[in-house]
Design a protein that fits this description.
Layout lengths: L1 E9 L4 H7 L7 H11 L5 E2 L2 E2 L5 E8 L5 E8 L4 E11 L1
Antiparallel strand pairs: 1-2, 1-6, 3-4, 4-5
Amino acid sequence: MKTVNYLVRVHALPEDLKEASRDTNHDLHKTSVIYSKLINTDHLWEVDSIDEYKQIWVAVNFINDAGQAEFHTIKIDSGTYESIEYDDYIIN
């Protein structure tokens, strides 16, 4: 069982996603849109999991423009977020 004691405040779009955000046909365009949702909010995000490469993942769930629920888990690149101290909680 893994635990962490921080939340994540995402403040920057990674370079590869900046490029993808400008091209709706790019494979990573949808990822850039979701990542931007993390940036354009005042929410602090709970870590969903940390993978074998020590990369942080967060769950992003929302209602899209068509009124449908979307459920995503997205990797947060180092240098694009700030850790905010918080109580211990269990992650996947």
